[in-house]
Amino acid sequence: MHINFRQAITFIEVMIAFLVLGIVLVPVFGFLTGSVKDTDKIYAEAIAISRAKLIMDTMMFQIPWRVIREGKNGGPCRFSVYKLGEAPSSIPEYRKKVNENLNKLLAVAIPKMFGEGTIVSSAANNEEWRGDGKFVNNKGFVFRARAKVTDLDDDKLGPSYSIPFVNNDPLTQASKPYYSISELTPLDYDKKFNVIKKIVVQVKWSNLKGLDPNEDKNPRSLFLVAYKSDLDS
């Protein structure tokens, strides 16, 4: 009896093997790809949270009260250091020459907070930065950062609508139970009686690398809100 041993496999068997392998590996590759995308999304969100905290912490604890100003027409806030003669003459502190180190601080801090695109305007008497900019991280995600400030002052509706501050001094409480804001602080740069600022920080980004969130139909966004007071004026 003569027995033939086959030394090779047929093309059909090869195709069947690849088909089985594909059925097994396609879900695996899909899972790995989805995991990478989810990781990128979490990473981008972590960057946004970190930048929002950096902006808020810097505005709350590093940048002086008088430098943070309400934006024009509801726009992003402004940072400016007025030089001699620009501030209201009723404030003795502002009659002195402004410390040049404060301008240097803003020149370094604002771009680090808001990234490139921060608008800087230079006038004869002051330099002004806007709390609005764009930055890109090392993985290519594009972020937009903005801060909006609202002065909670008492001159928008008149003194009769001012926020009262309770007088806890037992010696004067009977004759003066409340103080209005105008009795506690002088006029600021914008000629307002103001001791509290509402700060809203927004960071917006796209989950698609390289895409500006302003051009994304479904951008991600987060907000931080805080109140900064100047009760030692």
Care to describe what's here?
- This protein has one domain.
- It has two helices and ten strands; from the N terminus they run αββαββββββββ.
- Strands 1-2-4-3 form a four-stranded antiparallel beta sheet, with helices on one face.
- It is 28% helix and 24% strand.
- With 233 residues, the chain is of the alpha+beta class.
Task: State the main characteristics.
233 residues, alpha+beta, 4-stranded antiparallel β-sheet, 2 helices, 10 strands, 28% helix, elongated
The end-to-end distance, rounded to whole angstroms, is 112 Å
What is the chain-wise order of helices and strands?
HEEHEEEEEEEE
β-strand amount: 15-25%
- State the strand order across the main sheet: 1-2-4-3
Note the total helix count: 2
Principal-axes geometry comes out as elongated
Largest sheet, described in full?
Answer: 4 strands, antiparallel
Low-confidence sequence ranges: none
Counting DSSP E segments of at least 2 residues, the number of strands comes to 10
Rg measurement, Å: 30 Å
Class from secondary-structure proportions? alpha+beta
Mean pLDDT: 77
- The total number of structural domains is 1
Helix share bin: 25-40%
